Amino acid sequence: MFEPSGLYYPNRFARYFLLAAEDVLSPNGLQAVLGMAGLDRQLPSDTLERAYDFSNFAAFCNALEDMYGARGGRGMSLRIGREWFSGGLKSFGALAGLGDPAFQVLPLETRSKIGLEALTSVLTHYSDQRIKLQEDEECYHWVVETSPTAWSRVSDKPVCQAQVGLLQGCLNWASGGHEFHTYERVCAAVGRPQCIFTIQKKPIGS
Predict the structure, then answer these.
(1) Considering only CA atoms, which of 42, 5, 10 is closest in space to residue 27?
(2) Is the pLDDT reported for residue 185 higher than 70?
(3) Over the range 170-204, which residues count as b (16 or more CB within 10 Å of their CB) and which as e?
(4) Assigned fold of 8-200
(5) Where are the beta strands (DSSP E) in the chain?
(6) 47-67 burial, b if ≥16 CB within 10 A, otherwise e?
(7) Measured distance CA(125)–CA(130) in Å, rounded
(8) I need a surface site. Which of 5, 101, 123, 150 has the fewest CB within 10 A?
(9) Each residue of 126-182: pLDDT tens digit?
(10) What is the pTM of this model?
(11) Upper half-sphere CA count for residue 5 (Cβ side, 13 Å)
(12) What integer pLDDT is reported at residue 1 of this predicted model?
């Protein structure tokens, strides 16, 4: 177990995450990872109470790497992150509007930016995750003050693939099916003060 961070996601968001993990890993796989991580094997309640500590996410993703190896575990985290969005978060708050037909006729770059802004707004408002969305001519930069998946972890490579998957899922939904090159450029687990995710503005293949 990692030391508690004192920073929290609402139970509902954590529940979405673990249900996504169950879809990717199978029910038995989920239970095995939770056991290895030393976490409660019961799903969090379906409430907006901020009660699921960031350290639980870090412990879960760390256990994935212990079970499947660094490469395999990070690949699983990426898939879970995408499913986390499509399986629950996309229907929440400002994100729900991204599926509206009126939204889908907007220019692609506008939809992508609004999608990232909506995800940033939802996470910042309902959880203790503090995020700034910045941009330059070619990229968006998602700057996370404290990433739950990097909390207390030490690595020689970025570890927040679940957050990368979350961003990919959001952009795929907002853009109507396009994929965007998204990666973690800076990670707190590598000794940096923040985690920074970079997203190319132009979709892959364009």
Answers:
(1) 42
(2) yes
(3) bbbbbbeebebebebebbbbbeeebbbbbbbbebe
(4) H-NOX domain (3.90.1520)
(5) 8-10, 50-53, 131-135, 139-144, 182-186, 195-200
(6) eeebebbbbbbbbbbbbbbeb
(7) 9
(8) 101
(9) 999 999 999 999 999 999 999 999 999 999 999 999 999 999 999 999 998 999 999
(10) 0.94
(11) 24
(12) 65
- Indicate the residue type of 87: G
How many of the other CB atoms lie within 10 Å of CB of 137? 5
Q: What is the pLDDT of residues 85-98, one digit of tens each?
A: 998 888 888 888 88
79 Cβ neighbours under 8 A, 6+ residues apart? 24, 165
Q: How far apart are CA 95 and CA 122, in angstroms?
A: 8
Q: Please give the pLDDT value at position 103.
A: 86
Per the prediction, the chain carries an average pLDDT of 94
Task: Give per-residue burial for 97-136: e unless 16+ CB within 10 Å, then b.
Answer: ebeeeeeeeeeeeebbbbbbebbbebbeebbbbebebeee
User: Where exactly are the structural domains of the chain?
Assistant: 8-200
Asked whether the beta carbons of 76 and 33 are under 8 A apart, the reply is no
Work out the number of other CB atoms within 10 angstroms of the CB of residue 27: 10
Burial (CB < 10 A; 0-12, 13-18, 19+), residue 138, is exposed
161-175 vs 108-126: helix crossing angle, rounded to 10: 130
pLDDT tens sequence across 51-82: 999 999 999 999 999 999 989 999 999 999 99
Hunting for tokens 């968006």 — which residue is that?
A: 140
- Count other C-beta atoms under 10 Å from residue 10's C-beta: 21
